[in-house]
Design brief:
Radius of gyration: 15 Å
Strand order of the largest sheet: 1-4-3-2
CATH architecture: Roll
Strand content: 25-35%
Low-confidence stretches: 55-61
Mean pLDDT: 86
Shape: globular
Number of strands: 8
Number of domains: 1
CATH class: Alpha Beta
């Protein structure tokens, strides 16, 4: 069994597509006002237009039951982090070692936290 897709509910489809395509760098499969999808090497990341607007506190709250945190893998986390900083993406955890992986966390335009790890080469053991 494998995860087939993840849906992220967004308040502004154009802004969300621009963020995930132009800032994060995911290849856009297709977009529409209500539903957009990105082609990844794993599960599909889909955006779905939400009818409810986010509240002022949504971007700073801790994860709770019923929420999701998408996770992406990149070849070079330092380069990815520098790109996010240059594009003024809010970083809630700078790259650091955690549970044997390098990981960082950023926030999308609707306040959703996204975890990004550095892809490890098979057989590579760095601490």
């Amino acid at each position: 069994m494998r995860v087939n897709y993840v849906i992220v509910f967004v308040s502004d489809m154009k802004s969300a597509v621009s963020f995930y395509r132009d800032v994060i760098g995911l290849p856009l499969r297709f977009d529409s006002p209500e539903w957009s999808e990105f082609a990844t090497e794993g599960a599909t990341l889909a955006l779905h237009a939400s009818e409810g607007a986010k509240s002022e506190n949504d971007s700073s709250r801790q994860a709770s039951a019923g929420q999701c945190r998408p996770g992406l893998s990149v070849a070079n986390l330092d380069e990815f982090h520098q790109r996010m900083v240059e594009r003024n993406v809010r970083c809630i955890q700078a790259p650091k070692e955690l549970f044997g992986d390098r990981i960082a966390q950023y926030v999308d335009p609707d306040g959703l936290a996204i975890s990004v790890t550095e892809a490890r080469l098979p057989g590579r053991e760095d601490g």
